[in-house]
Amino acid sequence: MQSNIVDLRARLAEKMAGEITLSANPGETIKKWRKSFEVSQIDLANAIGVSPSVISDYESGRRKSPGTTIISKIVEAMLDIDEKAGSHKIRAYESMLSYANSNVILDMHEYRSPVHLTKFARMIGAELVSGSMERSINGYTIIDSINAILQLSSEEFYRLYGWSTERALIFCNVSTGRSPMVALRVSTLKPAAVVLHGLEASRIDPIARKIAEVETFPLMASRMDIDTMISTLKGLKE
Fold first, then answer.
1. 167 with 140: CB under 8 angstroms?
2. What is the four-CA torsion angle of 99, 104, 105, 106, rounded to 10 degrees?
3. CA-CA-CA-CA torsion for 62, 65, 67, 69, nearest 10 degrees?
C-alpha cells in the first residue's frame, strides 16, 4: 500500500474504533460502519473467524457489547476487505477530508449511533413539507447550494454524502429549492432527507416538492440562523 493509504487507514481505524467504543449503542455503530463499507455479516464473520449469528447478535444488542480486542478485529477486517477490493472506501475518506473545510461544505458529521429524524428536525426547527419522518439518519451535511452547483462535478457531488447516504442534506443559499432538488433527481445516490434552509414552506418550488415525492425522501424547510443551526448540531455530536 502507498504510504498515504497506510496513513489514511490508520486514521480511519482510530475513528471507527473510537466511535464504536464510545457509542451508547456499539452494535448499531458496528452495523452503521459495516453497511457503509458494504460488507455483509457473512463476510465480516468469516474475516474474524466467527459465525454470522455472532455479528448479528452484536448488532442487535442480543450479545454483550464486544470488548476492545473484538472491536479492533471487526474494524481491521472491514478495512482489509476494502483494501482487497481496491481501497475505495479508504480513498473516499481522503476525498471527504479534502472538502471538510471548503466553501461548499459548511459542516459535516457522522453520528456514532443513528438519530431519529423527528429529533433532528426538532433541533433545527424544521417543518415537514412532504414525506414521512419515520426513519433515522447516520449523519448530515450542510451545503452552500450556489457553490455546490458552480464548483462540483457530478462525481464530486457524491462526496456530500460522507460515509452514508442515510443522512440529511441541508442546502442553504437557496431561493426556491428547485436547483438542488433537480441535482438530486439526476443523481444516482439519494439522501435520507433534505432540508431547504432559509425558506418558508410555502415558497418552495412545486417542482422541488414533486421531486421529493417521486424520490420518496422527506423534504423539510428551516429558517433557523445557519450559525445557530451549526452550533446546535454540534451539541448533538457530543
1. yes
2. 130
3. 60
Per the CB < 8 A criterion, the answer to whether 112 and 27 are in contact is no
**151 near 104, Cβ under 8 Å?**
yes
Compute, in degrees rounded to 10, the torsion defined by CA atoms 175, 197, 137, 12.
90
Residue entry with cell 457530478: 154
For strands 167-172 and 105-116, give the pairing.
unpaired
The helix/strand/coil state of 16 is helix
Please write the tens of the pLDDT for every residue from 165-178: 789 999 999 999 99
**Rounded distance between C-alpha atoms, residue 71 and residue 74, angstroms:** 5
d(CA 220, CA 204): 10
Burial of 122 (0-12, 13-18, 19+ CB in 10 A): exposed
3-state secondary structure 48-112: HCCCHHHHHHHHHCCCCCCCHHHHHHHHHHHHHHHHHCCCHHHHHHHHHHHCCCCCCEEEEEEEE
pLDDT one-digit tens code per residue, 196-230: 999 999 999 999 999 999 999 999 999 999 999 98
Q: The whole model's pTM is what?
A: 0.65
**pLDDT category of residue 238 using cuts at 50, 70 and 90:** very low
